[in-house]
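thought: user wants a sequence for this fold. calling inverse folding tool.
action: design(structure=
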């Protein structure tokens, strides 16, 4: 199957990103045709530092590699390096109802943060994401739960285009992880873990052992005495149990048994040690790839060429069917 997914270059890659998306990518790349993109054009819909962006793009490529994406098995490239993404986005703009865009949850959330954040790019963000996906006839889009609505819109746009201009696009389906689709903030467990929130609220894939210990120690729990999973009544401890379960690959029920009779402090200490051990290989590989900048840039160039070959074929077909060629 054809797989497509992408992550913005801005912000730290945290364990929620890893468990919700990249962990899936690692398993999918072995038996599928995978395309993984650094979606820099999405990143400029909100305020950003122009001087830092190029370095962040390169660092995100390093992170993909450090997290286990194999350039021999998957295409890795930068979104803005393939011009067909923006071209197809404009063409899809002409068939996408405004009402669909105003209903998008992420647009509502980001625009509510202040009028200065509102711009046409923010509103049209989902159309660009649809273009990213449809350009490569992706069958599956592995995402976290918060992106499910965007994939549904991409499918709706594809269906509408096919109906109006003839069969052109594959109808994509989202793939959520069976566990870990929604890792919550460790300081506000009723809110999804986000790289745009304060650093103390998430655990970076590359945090130092000292930072991990400090963050886990201050993580929100509750006033109960027992370590028990109850997402509705006890979101804090339930979130930490989920994280422990996913990194230890032990069912939550089994973790509860292991932690029976232990204090919250003891549980947090054991969780921190587990995280330090499990994240150590990511930190090591990141340092290795950061010292091989030329190699990383060559991987991105090869990915650009491969993506361009696929994208140009599809955009030519789209323009022909729309009467533009």
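)
observation: tool returned 325 residues.
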């Amino acid at each position: 199957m054809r797989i497509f997914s992408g992550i913005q270059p801005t912000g730290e890659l945290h364990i929620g990103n890893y468990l919700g998306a990249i962990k899936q990518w690692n398993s999918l790349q072995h038996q599928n045709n995978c395309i993984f993109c650094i979606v820099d054009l999405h990143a400029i819909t909100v305020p950003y530092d122009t001087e830092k962006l190029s370095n962040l793009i390169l660092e995100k490529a390093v992170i993909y590699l450090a997290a286990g994406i194999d350039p021999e098995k998957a295409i890795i490239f930068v979104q803005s390096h393939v011009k067909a993404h923006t071209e197809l986005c404009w063409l899809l703009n002409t068939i996408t109802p405004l009402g669909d865009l105003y209903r998008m949850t992420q647009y509502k959330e980001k625009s509510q943060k202040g009028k200065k954040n509102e711009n046409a790019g923010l509103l049209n963000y989902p159309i660009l994401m649809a273009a990213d996906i449809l350009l490569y006839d992706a069958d599956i889009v592995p995402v976290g739960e918060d992106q499910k609505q965007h994939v549904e819109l991409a499918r709706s746009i594809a269906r509408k285009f096919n109906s109006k201009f003839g069969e052109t696009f594959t109808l994509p389906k989202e793939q959520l992880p069976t566990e870990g689709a929604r890792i919550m903030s460790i300081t506000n467990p009723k809110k999804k873990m986000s790289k745009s929130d304060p650093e103390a609220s998430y655990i970076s894939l590359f945090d130092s052992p000292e930072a991990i210990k400090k963050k886990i120690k201050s993580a929100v729990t509750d006033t109960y005495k027992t370590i028990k999973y109850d997402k509705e009544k006890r979101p804090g401890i339930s979130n930490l149990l989920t994280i422990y379960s996913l990194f230890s690959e032990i069912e939550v029920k089994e973790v509860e048994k292991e932690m029976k009779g232990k204090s919250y402090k003891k549980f947090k200490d054991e969780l921190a040690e587990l995280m330090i051990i499990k994240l150590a290989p990511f930190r090591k590989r990141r340092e290795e790839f950061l010292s091989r900048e030329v190699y990383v840039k060559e991987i991105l160039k090869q990915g650009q060429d491969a993506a361009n070959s696929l994208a140009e074929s599809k955009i030519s077909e789209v323009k022909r069917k729309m009467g533009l060629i």
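thought: summarizing for user.
answer: Here is the designed sequence. The chain has two domains: 2-181+293-321, 206-287.
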